[in-house]
Amino acid sequence: PTPHYAHIPLAVTPENLKLSKLSHARKVSCDIETLIKAARFLGQKVMDKQDYEHKHDFWQHLFDIWDLNRVPKMEKQKIMY
Predict the structure, then answer these.
(1) Alpha carbon distance 35, 49 (integer Å)
(2) 0.85 exceeded by the pTM?
(3) Could you give the CA distance from residue 80 to residue 69 in angstroms, rounded to a whole number?
(4) b/e map of 17-39 (b: 16 or more CB within 10 Å)?
(5) Ordered per-residue pLDDT tens for the chain, 81 residues
């Protein structure tokens, strides 16, 4: 089957620089708190950190509730870090 594609907003700094190694963006950790922030950046309604016992629980919940229509329709979205 043909895969479905979608565009997501580009995360940029307050100065409008793309988050990347070239712009010296900090390394992103893969803890539940950061995953929750990323999901919310993409418009998803995830629960709070204490509601997930393990990362697996977070990923399962995100898989169950993912809604592409909630992803912001903008080219860029500023992120404060």
Answers:
(1) 9
(2) no
(3) 23
(4) eebeeeeebeeeeeebeebbbbb
(5) 888 888 888 888 778 888 888 878 888 778 999 899 989 989 999 999 999 999 999 999 999 999 999 998 876 666 655
